[in-house]
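Researcher: I need the complex structure. Ligand is NAP. Inputs:
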Amino acid sequence: MKNLQSFLNGKWQSGSGKTTQLFNPSTGAVLATCSTEGLDLKSALEFARQVGGPALSNMSFAERGALLVEMSKAIHAQRETLIELGQQNAGNTRGDAKFDIDGASHTLMHYGKLAETLGEGNILFDGEPEPVARGGRLVGQHILVPRGGVAIHINAFNFPAWGLAEKAACALLAGMPVLSKPASSTALMTHALVEALTPIMPEGTLSLLCGSVGDLLDHVEWADVIAFTGSADTGEKIRSHPQVLRSGAAVNIEADSLNSMILDPDAEDATYDAFIRHAHTEITQKSGQKCTAVRRLLVPRERLEEVIEDLVERFGRTVVGDPTLDGVTMGPLCTPSQKQAALEGLSILQEHAKVIYGGPDGELKSQKGVDLSGGAFVCPTLLQTEGPCQSDSPIHNLEVFGPVSTIIPFDGSAAEAVKQVRYGQGCLVSSIYADNSKFLKESILGLAAWHGRLVVVDEQVAEKALAPGLVTPQLLHGGPGRAGGGEELGGLRGMKLYQQRCAIQGNGPKLSRLIKG
Ligand code: NAP
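Model: Output:
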């Protein structure tokens, strides 16, 4: 059986002692093990700071961009191998695995190209020189430089490829070395991806920790950055870790989110069709294990019957099963424990909403003769409440990380939809399907401060509109409140977390010559 090593101090290393097992969630078979016990994580961080840091900060933006382009190509060259690993270890259908892997190479390529706009220098100017005394010679110039430490990336199990790449693209372009820790349960794909990348990475610029986090955070220093994606509980532990607090290292948290889709009662046919299409995609893609998947569907009472009928018809065509088999459109959850957590959450939601389709005992529509009893399968599930819910209802507060979403019927007014969505207390993304300008304006103004991203679909863009769960490198990923308060991506904004702003004050013309070099 494969033992996943970590890539630290520029070499592959094995932990000893207690191991974590990685499963095939379709069958329950053990695929690999990993361990971080006994690894010297203090020296691994120091190596990245001392060797990887200078290597990157001495490179121009153009050179860093070229590295990102090479990384993108190296991942693309391994696409088929990585897809297979996603099918085996993460329960991905081929489409789900491509979503993750192509998302990784696309994001790296996007940032690689973006670097071309930053030129041959390695310092960014933030604004124009500001005169600070009479005469004009004495000025202040704000500049942005890479923070001097390591970017520690701790990722969730659901995107083993994209999770590494989207964070690494921004950190490396900003000039910070990366130590990436994927979730143990789906690390097989991340491990293979880093194997493909190590031959092209300058020494110390990319490290990989496969297995539990160990004492990593005990060695964090002030100039490091911790970017975390995962549950709110773990996010809180990281934020309040004594050494993280003591050191003052920067922390970015991407956590739970109860994303919504809102349908305007007057939505035209094309807009309505996009709502149905997107809702089905968001509930079933990656078996609902996306931080941006929809959890709450705000449906006007007058269109309730129509929406239920159309969604149920689509669910009826969803074939659940081993994602390596032809015809399967939805795989299992990533691990048996995720299935257990999803079913526990579902039983809480059922105290507040009735099952319209699926549910814990829902009959899985699988291929004939295929036994699904050994796998982490959950039936796509649609629930419905009686009407709007109280702010403290689990419908607004409990994220069931699986193919589960709840319809909340409302009176059709933007005011009531906004009130309900706000009860989620901060989300990554919500979407509004409307053609009525008044409804749209009221919803956008009412919800923008509660979100990192809002997707607005009307009949003119309905056909081409991207499903709201798709995160693109051009736009912000993150959200306020419950969603963690973090910000990633968003084009060049994504580098902000990894940069220190410094105001250089002095002799203007001389400074300009020195800095521009
Ligand atoms: P998780 O249990 O919080 O784990 C996330 C990562 O944190 C894993 O790499 C895990 O390592 C590590 N970890 C566990 N305990 C830690 C500790 N004490 N200190 C530091 N790191 C620690 O979350 P998950 O189950 O993988 O992911 C599911 C959750 O992630 C969902 O709630 C979902 O909403 C959220 N999510 C959010 C986003 C977003 O962008 N906002 C994206 C995807 C997922 P091990 O695996 O080794 O335990």
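Model: Summary of the prediction. The mean pLDDT is 95.
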